[in-house]
């Protein structure tokens, strides 16, 4: 029997994803405390156009409308994040019942519509009081995270399908504490590496806390963003190794193998002695997880800098300030401009990178089920005279990446599902509202939602599980 390579098997989960600070708004309502992203976005010069998440998509007040949108699309699962500062405004200590009530309504609304809740505990909105005490550079933040995990597990553990501890600790550590283009905007290479460790520790302590008390039967996971590097000239292989160590294995090593890679420690010896790693930490960090979340958007092309002229740093982040996202030996890695078409982020479109990444992860971690927890694209959408949004570039991006995921299944990868980033246009961090990732358009003046053509396409894909059927009726 041949299996149509454009059809997804039963059990493969189709979802979509968002994050609290990017969509909720209501930043000062119902007892929510300030987060590092409130502070950062309200500090001039940090975010495009001075945009903030104060209102965002106003999802906080439009939850029911958004739930109905999800049901209309036929989403099987919805990946969202809990705002720690809504639940424990001080980071530790008093719990804000109104914050718990809000997420309780969201979770019930999902369950009523047959949508599986996939909840991330931390998608970057750290309570500001914890940053004031050192943030992720401090061990106390990992311990506070475990306390927060206990609170949310007690409140929602009976109703959550999948718990995810952290979203993309790479971004939190290196963009937040190294390059300074994300909150809290610090530019301290040693603090960035301490943050790597304390985020890893938070994952381990948090997973244990969630597991200790759960009354339901949730799956446990973490979501990482992997750098898929291609060789781009002299020293390409060595450059790839350095990026892989700092960006990927710095997290998978401790979380899945219980060790930091020896080459990572060597590459960063001039920056830190890693003395913040205490005896026993690695055993705490390494916890069995049911699924590893994979966020994928693009590839990078690298070589070693020859020391001549300006170094190119086309690594896809916000424009580089004095800080660096690449402490240690990776500082000598050049990121070359990428050939071929790219999205509005300037990220090249490379679906084969997704297949390669999934195959590589399943080779490195053979028994670890995988899930694509984010994939999607920003484009400069045009609203047609009749109000429709023909985002055929986004649909094309998505269909090619779905087919790339399908290829990985054919190659034996245990891939459980795929979440489109994002359900809604939203606050794209330091790019503010200038980059639209949604399959649903949000008019940020009226807050009106409109399904883009890509959303109609996705609805057909979910209903039929077939890319071919989804493509018929393209509009
Ligand atoms: C991810 N980089 O962020 C996040 O999980 C989302 O919140 C975000 O909206 C989405 O991808 C699109 O950007 C990233 O600079 C932000 O390499 C920056 C980078 C990678 C991922």
TrEMBL record:
SUPFAM superfamilies: (Trans)glycosidases. One of its GO terms (cellular component) is cytosol. InterPro entries: GH, GH_1_N_CS, Glyco_hydro_1, Glyco_hydro_1_beta-glucosidase. Belongs to the glycosyl hydrolase 1 family. Substrate binds at residues 22, 123, 167, 297, 421, 428-429. It holds the Pfam family Glyco_hydro_1. It comes from the Bacteria. It is an enzyme of class 3 (hydrolase). GO terms for biological process: cellulose catabolic process. Its EC number is 3.2.1.21. It catalyses: Hydrolysis of terminal, non-reducing beta-D-glucosyl residues with release of beta-D-glucose. GO terms for molecular function: beta-glucosidase activity. This is Beta-glucosidase. The active site is at residues 168, 374. Keywords: Carbohydrate metabolism, Cellulose degradation, Glycosidase, Hydrolase, Polysaccharide degradation.
